[in-house]
Amino acid sequence: MTIKHRRYKLLSDFERVYKFLKDNYNSDHFNGYLLPSFYEYAHTHSYFDHKLTHRFGLWEENSDIVGVACYEMRLGECIMAVKAGYEDLYPEMLTYGEKELSEEKDGSHTLTVYSTDKQGLDDLLTERGYEVCDTETITIYPYEKGFKELPLPEGFSMISLEDENDLKQIHACLWKGFNHGPNPDDDIDGRLLMQSAPRFNKELTTVIKAHNGDYACFAGMWEDTQNQYAYLEPLATVPEYRRMGLATIALMEGMKKSQKYGAKYCFGGQREFYGIIGFENVGKRIMWKKTWG
Question: Which CATH architecture has domain 3-138+284-292?
Fold first, then answer.
């Protein structure tokens, strides 16, 4: 069959690409770290550029998706994922990414390509003039290790968003927890947007409340029941409540809840915190960058 290429159509293709990523998930190279759960989460993030998703590229055979090239949040980024056996598409997809997904400024184009150390793109990217600009560790927590049981500090309580869903408190917690400053802006609609994803699950989201009612720690959790993993996003603790074990408690609770949905491990971050509480390194995410006139 002939492979055809076309642009992404946000309203009609979102679920099709999600299913493609889920059906072709590979625990060795993680779809170039384009996890279906992250793909969904990104589409509801206030930083995600919905206006330019028509720049995404799809490759189809007999109307079935066999490859996708897209950005993570905005132009200047490129992630490529293909169905097993269609790796020969990568050169064409990279050419497309350079044309449609690069960022143009002052007459120069820049593109950062995200891959994993097991995806097999090193030779292609090197030949095309890309250089490694950064690496990140890919970490998971295998549930067979069990879960750490830590007591909540006195005066604190743990809830899910099914119990209470105070958008203003959520916004304040994440704003301060990601070090944006002490005074949150008023983008409450951005928090509503993040709860609009088809598979957003209030039960899986864990919040720790302080004695004064403030949301002190927030741990979001997404699950892929087909591939039996959970994806943590986001995790944040308000600065004044750090170093009290709250993030560990909230994360362990979220993982325990995701286990009920069939998850066997959870993706984490790369900060030292994750290694300390038992996450294991399973690979590397590599950022390749190229600038041309």
Answer: 3-Layer(aba) Sandwich (3.40)
Query: What pLDDT digit, counting tens, does each position of 160-189 carry?
Result: 999 999 999 999 999 999 999 999 999 999
- Give me the phi and psi of 208, to 5 degrees please: -110, 125
Q: How many residues does the chain have?
A: 293
Same fold, 3-138+284-292 and 149-276: yes
Q: Give the predicted TM-score (pTM) of the model.
A: 0.95
Q: What is the pLDDT of residue 1?
A: 66
- CATH code of the region 149-276: 3.40.630.30
For the chain, what are the domain ranges?
A: 3-138+284-292, 149-276
Q: In degrees to the nearest 10, what's the CA dihedral of 268, 273, 277, 281?
A: 50
Say which residues have a Cβ less than 8 Å from residue 67's Cβ, sequence separation at least 6: 57, 58, 59, 80, 81, 82, 83, 86, 89, 93
Give the H or E element holding residue 190. helix 188-194
